[in-house]
Write a structure and sequence with these properties.
Layout lengths: L9 H5 L6 E9 L4 H6 L8 E5 L5 E6 L3 E5 L5 H14 L1 E4 L10 E6 L17 E5 L2 E6 L2 E10 L6 H14 L13 E7 L1 H13 L7 E12 L5 H11 L4 E7 L2 E7 L2 E6 L2 E12 L4 H13 L1 H21 E5 L5 E4 L3 E12 L5 H8 L7 E2 L1 H11 L10 E6 L4 E5 L3 E5 L2 E10 L5 H19 L4
Parallel strand pairs: 1-5
Antiparallel strand pairs: 1-9, 2-3, 2-12, 3-8, 4-7, 6-7, 6-20, 8-9, 10-11, 11-19, 11-23, 12-13, 13-22, 14-15, 14-21, 15-18, 16-18, 17-18, 20-21, 22-23
The structure holds ligand ISJ and magnesium ion.
The site of ligand ISJ has 18 residues, from strand 11, strand 15 and strand 23.
C-alpha cells in the first residue's frame, strides 16, 4: 500500500461511502519567530505540540486537534498506527503545492516505552500509542515557513474549498496575546522517587550480568513541586536556549505536558534515505576546554563505556540491515557534546527498501540497547520486573510522520511530565557487568540536570 499523494477518492465520496473526510490546505507564510506560534495560542493549551530537530532543519508546531489516534493493548502498535494513519488519509483532499517533508497533514505523537508494563496513575492520560493530527500547523523547513490547515468534515460537502478558506481567514483574524512568562517560580520540594531502592536494584542487576543478559538500562524518577503552575511556554523557551542542539519537544494532553530535550535520534526517513543514531556511554563536560577534551578522550578510551556503546551499535546495525539495501556505519564512535554531558556517538545511514516504512523501522529498533538493554527480550523482562517506575512515554519513540510516510522520531530521554505545579523528570543509564552503583547513580543525576534547570529548579 502506498501513501496518499493528495488524492481525493472522488467517486467513493460521491457514492457516499465515507462519513468523514480530511481537507487539508498548505500556504506559504512570511517567516516570523516560530515559538510565538506556540505561545500565542494559549487558549489551545492542552492541545498543542512542539518539535524541533537538533539542526533546526525541521520545526513543527501544532495547535488544536482534528483527529486523534489513541491505541491501547494492541499487539502490533506500530503497524496499528500506520494502518490507522493510512486509512484516515485515504479519504482526503490535499491542497499542497509545496514538495517538502513535514508540510501538509502530519501525525504527531509518541509511544509508551513498554505497553506490556501496567500503566500507573502518573501516565493515565496517555494511550500506548498517543497520536493526533493538528488543526493548524506551522512547519519551518530549512528556514521557510508553511501553514497547514486541516479540517475533518462529517459530511461530504462540495464547498470544502470555501470552508477551508474561511477557517484560514478566521485563523489569521484571530488575535491572542501571549501571556508573559512568569520568571522565578519557586521550587518547594524535590523528591528522589525510590533513590536508595534504585541503587539496590542496580547492585542486584550488576551481580547477575554474567550469563545471557549483558546490559540493562535502569531509570529513575525525580518529582519536583513548584509554588505556581509550570508554564510549558517558559520551559520550552528555556530548553531552546540551553539545549538547542537537541530534539526539543512538547506534547500537551489536557493538564499534562510531556516535554524534553533529547540528543538521541531513533530514526529519520526522507524518501528512501534513513538515519539512526547509536548513543550510549557518558561522561561530564569539563569546566574548561582542556579539561573537557581530557574527559572526552577518557570516555573514548574507557572499556566499560565502549562495551555499553557497542551493544547499541551491533543491534542497530542488524536491525537496519533487515530493511535496508545499504547500511553505512563508522567503525569507531566519536563524541557528542551536550551542555551537561558528553556521549559516545555513532551515526548510522541507510537506504531503505521500497517495501519498508518508518513505522516498520521503529518497530525493529525500539527499544534499542540504549534504553532497553541486550539481549532485548531478557532486558525488557528485567526492567518490567525490577524497575520501580512506570516510564510512560519516557525513553520511547516520539515524533512525527507526514502524509507521504516521511518523518522523524527521537528517543524521548532528558524529559519530564509536567502536571500543573508539579513535574516528574526521568533519567536512566546502561548497566553492564563492570558498572559501579555510585557512578551510575551520579550519571542519572547528571541526566536530570537539563530538565531541572529548564523547569527552574536548579542552575
Ligand atoms: C537512558 C538515558 O540515556 C541513555 C543512556 C546513556 C548511558 O547510559 O550512557 C547515554 C545515552 C542514552 O542512550 C537517559 O538520559 O535517561
Ligand atoms: Mg552510561
Amino acid at each position: 500500500m502506498k501513501y496518499s499523494k493528495g488524492l481525493l477518492v472522488d467517486d467513493k465520496v460521491k457514492q457516499g461511502k465515507y462519513s468523514s473526510f480530511l481537507v487539508s490546505k498548505v500556504i506559504k507564510i512570511e517567516p516570523k519567530d516560530y515559538l510565538s506560534f506556540f505561545t500565542n495560542y494559549s487558549s489551545y493549551k492542552g492541545k498543542r505540540f512542539f518539535w524541533k530537530d537538533p539542526s533546526s532543519e525541521n520545526i513543527l508546531i501544532g495547535i488544536g486537534r482534528c483527529k486523534e489516534i489513541y491505541i491501547n493493548k494492541q499487539k502490533d502498535l506500530y503497524m496499528a498506527v500506520e494502518q490507522s494513519w493510512r486509512d484516515f488519509l485515504e479519504n482526503s483532499k490535499l491542497m499542497n503545492d509545496f514538495n517538502r517533508i513535514g508540510v501538509g497533514p502530519v501525525l504527531f505523537g509518541g509511544f509508551s516505552f513498554d505497553p506490556e508494563k501496567p500503566k500507573t496513575e502518573l501516565w493515565k492520560s496517555f494511550a500506548d500509542a498517543h497520536f493526533f493530527v493538528p488543526e493548524f500547523m506551522l512547519s519551518e523547513i530549512n528556514g521557510e515557513q508553511f501553514l497547514t490547515v486541516n479540517m475533518v468534515m462529517d459530511e461530504i460537502d462540495v464547498n470544502y474549498e470555501q470552508e477551508i478558506e474561511e477557517k484560514l481567514s478566521l485563523f489569521f483574524d484571530r488575535k491572542e496575546n501571549m501571556k508573559p512568562y512568569m520568571e522565578g517560580n519557586p521550587l518547594i520540594n524535590s523528591i528522589e522517587v525510590n533513590g536508595e531502592k534504585w541503587k539496590h536494584v542496580v547492585g542486584n542487576v550488576v551481580a547477575n550480568l554474567n550469563g545471557m543478559l549483558k546490559k540493562v538500562v535502569l531509570a529513575r524518577e525525580c518529582r519536583l513541586v513548584f509554588k505556581e503552575e509550570i508554564q510549558t511556554e517558559f520551559v520550552l523557551d528555556q530548553l531552546l536556549r540551553e539545549q538547542n542542539n537537541s530534539y526539543i519537544f512538547a506534547l500537551e494532553e489536557g493538564d499534562n505536558c510531556f516535554i524534553g530535550a533529547s540528543p538521541e535520534r531513533l530514526v529519520k526517513k526522507t524518501g528512501n534515505k534513513v538515519l539512526s543514531t547509536c548513543l550510549a556511554g557518558s561522561i561530564p563536560r569539563g569546566e574548561n576546554e582542556e579539561r573537557d577534551q581530557e574527559l572526552g578522550a577518557r570516555l573514548l578510551a574507557d572499556e566499560k563505556n565502549r562495551t555499553e556503546h557497542q551493544y547499541v551499535v551491533n543491534m542497530i546495525q542488524s536491525a537496519m540491515e533487515m530493511v535496508c539495501k545499504q547500511v553505512e556505519i563508522p567503525t569507531a564512535p566519536s563524541l557528542m557534546k551536550m551542555r551537561d554531558i558528553q556521549h559516545l556517538y555513532t551515526p548510522v545511514k541507510g537506504i531503505l527498501r521500497e517495501t519498508e516504512s518508518l513505522m516498520e523501522l521503529i518497530r525493529l529498533l525500539h527499544p534499542t540497547p540504549a534504553l532497553g538493554g541486550f539481549p532485548q527480550r531478557l532486558a525488557m523482562e528485567k526492567i518490567r520486573k525490577e524497575e520501580q517506575l512506570d516510564r510512560g512515554l519516557y525513553g520511547a519513540p516520539l515524533g512525527w510522520i507526514d502524509y507521504q510516510g516521511n518523518g522523524e522520531f527521537a528517543v524521548s530521554i532528558r524529559s519530564g511530565l509536567i502536571q500543573k505545579n508539579e513535574a516528574s523528570i526521568f533519567a536512566g543509564c546502561g548497566i553492564v557487568a563492570n558498572s559501579d552503583v555510585e557512578l551510575e547513580y551520579k550519571e542519572t543525576a547528571m541526566k536530570f540536570r537539563p530538565m531541572q534547570r529548564a523547569l527552574g529548579g536548579k542552575k
